Each structure stands twice: as structure tokens, then as C-alpha cells.
């Protein structure tokens, strides 16, 4: 994964504090820098960076994540509520300390590409029916998973036919 880090102006990196492959938490210092004198190359037609611009690949990723959330699946959520049930994410919201759940695997889809279009799989099988992540519960760190059984015609553990 790559994230652009914008400096407030020309800088020289004097020390790198992490290595390739390191997992780093939000707010962890990555580099030590010192101010540098601007050069003609620094201003060679680039102008100031638009920090509000969202790259197309990031926009696609954000949309894929939104599709899988309850807000992006109003029909599925309504069906759960009509049957007197809550969604997996509603259950997690009640269990986890507020704002601590980080989901992993949200872009996974059912292994049915031979039988179904990719767009249908993205819309109907986000996270392939399994919401996984880390959170805090009662202040303690934990990891877990919630299986959603309202997937598109699949049973848990059913293998893709050859």
C-alpha cells in the first residue's frame, strides 16, 4: 500500500524510521526531515498540490467499501429489519467500544465469477458474508468475525464448483 506524504515545503529526509513491510499505527513518525532550500526543479510547473483531489483508484476503493456498508445496502438492511433482525455491523456496533472497529477483508467477494458478473458479486456479496476486524470491547483489544447468512444463494463453506 502506498500513501503520499506531503511536506509543508522543500525538505531533506535525514532519517527513515520504518522499513518496508513494517506495520505502522496512525500517527507513527515515519521520517525525520529538515528544511531545504527550494530549487528551480521544485517549482518546475507542478504548482501547489491539490490535497482535496481524490485519485481515481482511491475513489474506486472508497466506493467498493461504501457498497458493502449498511448505508450502501438499504434493501438488504430493510429485509433484515423486516424480519426483526439486525445487520452484522449493527451487532458489532453494539458490542464494540464506539469508533474502535476496523474492518478487514471488506473487498472480498463470493468465489462465483464463473456463474455471475463481477458487478453483481460486488453488489450482492460484499465481504463474502463474513465481517472481520479488530476493535476494543470494554477497553480491551480484540479481533473477531461475524458471519452474515443473508448471502446470495450460498451456504457457509460451500466451495466453488469446478
Overview of this structure, please?
- With 162 residues, the protein is of the alpha+beta class.
- It has a domain at 56-147.
- It is built from 4 helices and 5 strands.
- It has helices at residues 56-68, 74-82, 88-95, 118-124, and strands spanning 11-16, 31-35, 102-104, 130-137, 140-147.
- A 3-stranded antiparallel sheet has the order 3-4-5, with helices on one face.
- A hairpin with a 2-residue loop joins β4 and β5 (140-147).
- The protein is elongated.
- The two termini are 33 Å apart.
- The model is unreliable at 151-155 (pLDDT under 50).
Largest beta-sheet characterization: 3 strands, antiparallel
**Percent of residues in helices:** 10-25%
Distance between the termini: 33 Å
Strand content: 15-25%
User: Mean of residue pLDDT?
Assistant: 83
**Could you say which structural class the secondary elements and strand pairing correspond to?**
alpha+beta
**What pattern of helices and strands is seen along the backbone?**
EEHHHEHEE
Give the CA-based shape.
elongated
Q: Order of strands across the biggest sheet?
A: 3-4-5
Query: What is the helix tally?
Result: 4
- Uncertain residue ranges: 151-155
What is the tally of beta strands?
5
What gyration radius follows from the Cα positions, in whole Å?
21 Å
Secondary-structure blueprint of this entry?
Layout: E1 11-16, E2 31-35, H1 56-68, H2 74-82, H3 88-95, E3 102-104, H4 118-124, E4 130-137, E5 140-147
Antiparallel strand pairs: 1-2, 3-4, 4-5
Amino acid at each position: 500500500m502506498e500513501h503520499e506524504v506531503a511536506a509543508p515545503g522543500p525538505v531533506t529526509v535525514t532519517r527513515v524510521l520504518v522499513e518496508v513491510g513494517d506495520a505502522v499505527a496512525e500517527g507513527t513518525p515515519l521520517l525525520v526531515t529538515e528544511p531545504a532550500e527550494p530549487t528551480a526543479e521544485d517549482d518546475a510547473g507542478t504548482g501547489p498540490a491539490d490535497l482535496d483531489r481524490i485519485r481515481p483508484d482511491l475513489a474506486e476503493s472508497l466506493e467498493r467499501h461504501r457498497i458493502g456498508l449498511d448505508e450502501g445496502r438499504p434493501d438488504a438492511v430493510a429485509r433484515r429489519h423486516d424480519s426483526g433482525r439486525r445487520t452484522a455491523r449493527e451487532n458489532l456496533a453494539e458490542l464494540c467500544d464506539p469508533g474502535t472497529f476496523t474492518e478487514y477483508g471488506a473487498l472480498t467477494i463470493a468465489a462465483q465469477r464463473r456463474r455471475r458478473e463481477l458487478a453483481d458479486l460486488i453488489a450482492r456479496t460484499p465481504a463474502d458474508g463474513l465481517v472481520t476486524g479488530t476493535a476494543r470491547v470494554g477497553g480491551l483489544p480484540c479481533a473477531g468475525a461475524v458471519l452474515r447468512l443473508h448471502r446470495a444463494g450460498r451456504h457457509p463453506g460451500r466451495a466453488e464448483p469446478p
